Amino acid sequence: MIVVMRRDATQQNIDQMIKQVESLGLKPTVIRGTERTVIAAVGDERGAANAGMLESGAGVDEVLPVLAPYKLASLETRSEPTVIRAGSLTIGGGTMGVIAGPCSVENEEQIIECARAVKKAGATALRGGAFKPRTSPYSFQGLKEVGLQMLAAARKETGLAIVTEVVAGEDVDTVAEYADVLQIGARNMQNYRLLEAVGKTSRPVLLKRGPSATVDELLLAAEYILDAGNQQVMLCERGIRTFEAHTRFTLPLATVPYLQAKTHLPVVIDPSHGTGHTALVPAMARAAIAAGADGLILEVHPNPAKALSDGYQSLTFDQFAETMAGCRKVAAAMGMKM
Ligand code: PEP
Ligand code: MN
């Protein structure tokens, strides 16, 4: 349930309510909106049997049940859009964020060259995997901490915020030391201990949908991060597995308006993994913006034919610049700042 405080509620009223929520065995999360403060009280709803007593608390306007299974992610709990800010990157609340870069960090020259090119074309953050979750154990697994150092060098060079994946709980502190945004990959969407671990950091999280997960499962995965204390979560649709074979995955753009009707968290689309074909990426990037997406994540490589991972879906620098030009037109039509 949520406890909606009155506009004139004092900090003392809020502190008092936090204690009352705790006394019911529920966990309070304070959500400060521009208009008023809401205290989400989540946990075993049996503890909520005495919830009626909260209504009489000082400074309380009303107590409402949250019907969605995901409580903190729900629009019922927070009606204002969550805006993610991490260095050069802003996503949400009418601002399009564009995260671009190679699938994997391969060497310092590659990542710096890439960072310069995507920045010039208008990207607002740099992506690049240092810890790579690969389908085969024989594929390139990433440069790990050395790769993170190269990403940090690229940030120093260009000022772009760094988005990079963390694949294991034991690496969270190391990755968070270098990254501006922690990416949780599709394969780890339901690794609940990892979600809790990133939920305890102060870094925003880009949570990708598992290829076989439902959208409600994605929202519940996000809930783990929010419940652990980190309110800075972006949801990413990167395609799901279907019977269709002409694309690597099937990219369902209906996810965007569906999520926007359910959650305040920003929605990012990944047309690179979503299609698996460079030629299909620009149109799907434009379509994502037309569908209302808050951000894009795109794979870009100086020489896709030589890429150590995902070259077949990566854009060249020129293709990325062209894609951005097309996207800007759609963003303008949608009233989005880009
Ligand atoms: C990636 O972003 O390179 C990646 C591995 O993505 P996903 O987890 O969506 O497969
Ligand atoms: Mn990739």
The radius of gyration computed from the alpha-carbon positions, rounded to a whole number of angstroms, is 21 Å
Total count of strands: 14
- Average the pLDDT over all residues and give the rounded result: 95
Which secondary-structure class do the elements indicate?
Answer: alpha/beta
Strand order of the largest sheet: 7-8-9-10-11-12-13-14
Taking the sheet with the most strands, its summary is:
8 strands, parallel, barrel
Bound chemical compounds: phosphoenolpyruvate, manganese (II) ion
- The first-to-last residue Cα distance is 36 Å
Helical percentage: 25-40%
What amount of the residues lies in strands? 15-25%
Oligomeric state of the chains in view:
single chain
Number of helices: 10
Shape: elongated
What is the H-and-E element order? EHEEEEEEHEHEHEHEHEHEHHEH
Give a short synopsis of this structure.
By secondary structure, the protein is of the alpha/beta class. Helices cover 32% and strands 18% of the residues.
Write up what this structure looks like.
By secondary structure, the chain is α/β, with parallel strands linked by helices. The protein is 32% helix and 18% strand. The protein contains ten helices and 14 strands. It has helices at residues 11-23, 108-120, 145-158, 172-178, 192-199, 215-227, 255-262, 271-275, 281-290, 317-333; strands at 2-5, 27-32, 37-42, 60-64, 84-86, 89-91, 97-101, 125-127, 161-165, 181-184, 205-208, 233-237, 267-269, 295-299. It has an eight-stranded parallel barrel with strand order 7-8-9-10-11-12-13-14, surrounded by seven helices. Strands 2-3-1-4 form a four-stranded antiparallel beta sheet, covered by helices on one side. Strand 12, helix 7 (255-262) and strand 13 form a beta-alpha-beta unit. Helix 2 runs parallel beside helix 3 (145-158) and helix 5 crosses helix 6. The radius of gyration is 21 Å and the shape is elongated. The two termini are 36 Å apart.
